[in-house]
Each structure stands twice: as C-alpha cells, then as structure tokens.
Amino acid sequence: MINKVLVILTCLIFVLIGYRVLQPKNTIHQPATNAAADIVTQPTLTSNDVDNIDDIPPTYVDLGTNSTSAPTATPVLSTQPVSSFSCDGRTHCSQMTSCAEATYFTNYCPNTKMDGNHDGVPCKQQWCN
Fold it and tell me: How many whole angstroms separate alpha carbon 21 and alpha carbon 68?
C-alpha cells in the first residue's frame, strides 16, 4: 500500500516538474492587467505637437455606419511618410530630440521610461512641457 502511494506521489512530482519546464517563457515583462478595467486613452496634443504634426503616425477612424456587421476602420491616408521615427532601443527622455519623437516612442516602442505618472504625456520636463 505504501509503495503504491510513493509511486503515485513520485509520478505526480514528475508531472508537475515537467509541466513547469514545458511552459513557454514570457519574454516581455509587462505588469499584470485586468482586461475589464483597461481604459484606452488618446494622447492629447500640446502646442509643441502642432509644430511637429507631420511626425505623428496616422490613426484610424470609425465612420460609425449603422450596419449590423462588424465595424470596420478606414485608414486616414497622408501624402507624408508614416513616420521618421523607428523603435531603436532608446527608452529615456535624454535620448529624444522632440516631444513628437518621445510621444511616438511611448506609444509604439516597448519598455520606455518616459511617462512616469502614466498620463500619456512623456518627457514633461525636457520636451512636452
């Protein structure tokens, strides 16, 4: 009887260890979030952003049609290039050259450290004041 319990306990331990070993590794470290509580906010433009409005990537607009099908998004086309910025590993305000660049990096690049209070406006002391 005791041998059976030991065999079952040993098998259970091996199964648990195997489960932990075979789990995929999470390479992106993001804080746990509650999907029901997430609120999508749009960054607000400041007077400094108006000067660099061509540097902001295009957004998509829902025309609000009254159809019963799933909503579709219509791209806002521009004759300007999508963006002169690209995610190149910079994460701090001291590495940016404008408010528009800091805003782009905050919105589209991982692991940035430019919006300390998470209000959507990065680099308030250097660029977006």
Answer: 46
Phi-psi sector, 118: left (phi>0), alpha (psi -120 to 50), beta: left
Q: What is the mean pLDDT of the chain?
A: 74
Compute the distance between CA of residue 92 and CA of residue 57 in angstroms, rounded to an integer: 20
- 13/21 Cα distance (integer angstroms): 12
CA gap 92, 125 in Å, rounded:
12
Report the distance separating Cα 93 and Cα 46, nearest Å: 17
For residue 96, with 0-12 CB atoms within 10 Å meaning exposed, 13-18 middle and 19 or more buried, which class applies? buried
Helix (H, G, I), strand (E, B) or coil at 105: helix
Query: Range with the lowest mean pLDDT among 1-10, 46-55, 106-115?
Result: 46-55
pLDDT value of residue 91: 92
